[in-house]
Amino acid sequence: MKKKCLVVTGGGDCPGLNAVIRAIVKRADMDKDWEIWGSYNAFNGLLESPIRLMRLDDTAVAGIHFKGGTIIGTTNKGGPFNWPVQLDDGNWQAFDVSDEMIKTMQKLNIQAVINIGGDGSQAISQKLYEKGVNIIGVPKTIDNDLSSTDMTFGYQTAVETATQAVDKLVTTAASHHRIFILEVMGRGAGWIALNAAIAGGAEACLIPEIPYRIDNLTKLLKTRSDGKSGFAVIVISEGAKPVGGEQAGYIANEPGYENFRLSGAGHRLAYELQKTGIAADVRVSVLGHLQRGGIPIAFDRILATSFGVKAFEMVLNQEFGKMVSYKYPEFVSVPILDAIKYYNYVKLDSALIHTARGIGMCLGE
User: Fold this and answer.
1) Nearest to 101 by CA among 44, 140, 149
2) Which of 119, 143, 145, 300 is catalytic?
3) Could you tell me the residue range of the domain that residue 140 belongs to?
């Protein structure tokens, strides 16, 4: 009987997920002792009744490497440690069903798991590893906020999408002499915003790592546009906040997803600017999930494919409890615990911040 390796894609979708899946299958085909299966919608496929698994073979993964999203679906709701169950009184309650899920995996002869996801998904990987599951992590997040790896796949595609948005806003801002605010993703780290702002030539960039002072921003903008001439583009991370303020958002009340959901950073900034009496018309564009979708660029396809090959080789070498890591120019393995220990913030003494300041970009300081 062949051994079974389960592939899981969890958290937000990301350009390059399908390339990882395809690479795992391709590499496994070179070792005839293994079959690759996928669980629909992260681990939820194992927890639902009936179970929802997909056989991943050459036919299933043919031509998927350039497609966005994931053929086995993904979710950031529920999961083995927070499974929502509706009670008799109609209320919902979350339960830890990890032991039951592990028993199901054992019955199915699943001897290894490759979990593709960000910090939340890898935290689940670590918990399952501590319960005895043979698990490998693959770092995935457009936010590039996982430590212990130089880069995560999907990030560069998101930056490209955000940069194209800045480019488009420049032309309409210039035509109408407006100030445009582009809100991009980035809960705790400003990697997407800062890279897109530099690449797109934005006048200002506000990121979570640097709380902004509205007065400093207003001074710059008044020199850029008076509503009759000139223009400006500001890129802001969804997690950016003013000095002494909090991130904009609300608490979600969905069963199994009682998290803080970011929303409104760009519109809050527009309101703050308008209160200062700035003459120029201020408009907001929220890029949102456009950053997650679409075709991955070549860099992310290559990175994702390399991650997939390395992940299955880690299965063969029984390097469980570890995550694939890109340490230029090599692909190595690191303990999952180390990978989720520290958040990958933009360091204020980094070359990227130095570059932004060097071209006169306002960071809200």
Assistant:
1) 44
2) 143
3) 3-153+296-339
